[in-house]
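Pipeline run #58 for the internal structure catalog. This entry was flagged by the ingest filter as a single-chain record with no existing model, so it goes straight to prediction. Upstream metadata was stripped on purpose; only the residue string is passed forward. Reviewer on rotation: M.T. Logging verbosity set to normal.
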Amino acid sequence: MKDFFWASNIRRLRKRKKLSQEDLAAELGMSRSKLSAHENGQSRNPPLEDLICVSSFFRISIDTLLKVDLSRLSELQLRELEAGNDVYMSGTKLRVLATTVDRDNNENTELVPVKAKAGYTAGYSDPEYIAQLPVFSLPHLPHDRKYRMFPTTGDSMHPVPEHAYVIGEYLEDWTCLAKETACIVITRTDGIVFKLASYQPDCRALLLRSLNPAYAPYQVLAEDILEVWRLRNYLADTLPEPEQPVQEIAKMVADIRKDVQQLLKLS
């Protein structure tokens, strides 16, 4: 059978759990020799009851165990599968994130340059496209998460300077977002946007608001959202512009009132 990974996947998953063949066979309720036949590829047509048994034990769907070469997945992707986030198992639209890893199989942080920003909505799920992006690592970020860096444009998130780079942590389930969480949201219509995001369960949408009050909030429906990355940090060549102290603004208002009163007296 073409692209049949049953044997290698069982062997890999067993070793990840640090189980011997004898231990796993006992957990599955089968003989060690039968499990060995599965792992060695001697069982080309596994019985249905064995498929179901192995799938239930590892919490990974039969389709994934048969069709997906787990050796090609990163550590983060494997943990997502083992946590039950399997597109076939859950029946949802969850997907395995296209990503890159270093020589030690650690997740890279990919940089989406300005020139690649426009094409990201078309290539975000294409491993070949993602593999062409520049990569780097930041030592202060936890290694068990996935990060990506995106460029910003405009002043909608002032005081974050224009042309800064925002670093986001990938969210598999963005429906659990806290209210007004700073996020990089990838949408079908607007591409990459950096906003304060709030999930609205009644209409299955994200309400996106800018820090700059000159921009009106707007809603994006779930079916138009491709990815959500929670802000972790940002890099900029310039410092944010300082905000005027309340006392200074109050003094300006008082001076304006004084000038208006003088004008009224003269009229």
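catalog note: The longest helix spans residues 246-266.
catalog note: The chain has a mean pLDDT of 84.
status: ready for reviewer M.T.
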